[in-house]
Amino acid sequence: MRPLMLMVKRKSLLLESIIWKLERAKDGVRIILRGHAIYHANIVVYSYHYLLDPKIADLVSKELEKTSVVVFDEAHNIDNVCIEALSVTISRRTLDRSHANVESLARTVKNIKQKDSDKLRQEYNRLVQGLRDASVARETDVVLSNPVLPDEILEEAVPGNIRQAEHFVNFMRRFIEYLKTRLRAQHVVQESPPSFLQHIFQQVCIERKPLRFCAERLSSLLYTLELPDVQDYGPLTLIANFATLVSTYSKGFTLIIEPFDDRTPTIPNPILHFSCMDASIAIKPVFDRFQSVCHHIRDIVANRHVSQDS
């Protein structure tokens, strides 16, 4: 991934301090420093992933001004980047680690409930009211939209069966156990998202609506608990993102379960591939937010400009 580069006015001591820290920071801190530095820079040069991958863009690029000019240089492979950004690969190890995340969350929620129940109660009240703050931020172009969290979800309240923290943890535990059973397949399985949702409802009575809220519900819970090691919950975040994607997009994705990994075809190692087939899903928020977006493909320039009045 191309490193992030900043071009700023040298007279700003604050910016020089940020860049100095950015060069010496550890990986965990570097993303946070990048997020602060970007909004003070005149020109930002970075990999497509910082803008197209929802997991990274939500941390780094979501507050870029709508008047920014976005240039995708050497964009002949941009479709592949978009598809990769919204594709999910889940292995047995991923499920084992996400199960450990769930058990850790369960213990943390239990402790918080005993020591500071008001914190969970306040979160519950926010979820009852829905995700209106995020909705308003998108409508007013304050932040870049996240394709993992569709606009229509922001207009609804979180389903009652996952509002309380312990209920949501139990819900994720059930979902992970279901995925473990799917990875026991002895032959290649290919399904569409609607077929997957029909099967999960028939087998374990998990409905589509709470699945759609998993990504945002987990994000809310991790924020509420103020965990110091939130990066350790990456496997569970991946599962939550998959739950939201598979229950949101009925078209543009395909699900394939393989009993063997291509790298070790003689050793059973089931893999679930949820592959994005439509690159426009990832890049649409960029076109919707920014007034000028240019694609430079070698010697051909495709320019899209939208006037401020439109």
From TrEMBL:
Catalytic class of the enzyme: isomerase
SUPFAM superfamilies for this protein: P-loop containing nucleoside triphosphate hydrolases (SSF52540)
EC number: 5.6.2.3
Domain of life of the organism encoding this protein: Eukaryota
Hydrolase recorded as keyword: yes
The keyword Ubl conjugation is assigned to this record: no
An example molecular function term from Gene Ontology annotations: ATP binding
GO CC annotations on file: nucleus
Domain Helicase ATP-binding residues, every copy: 1-124
Name of this protein: DNA 5'-3' helicase
Gene: ERCC2_2
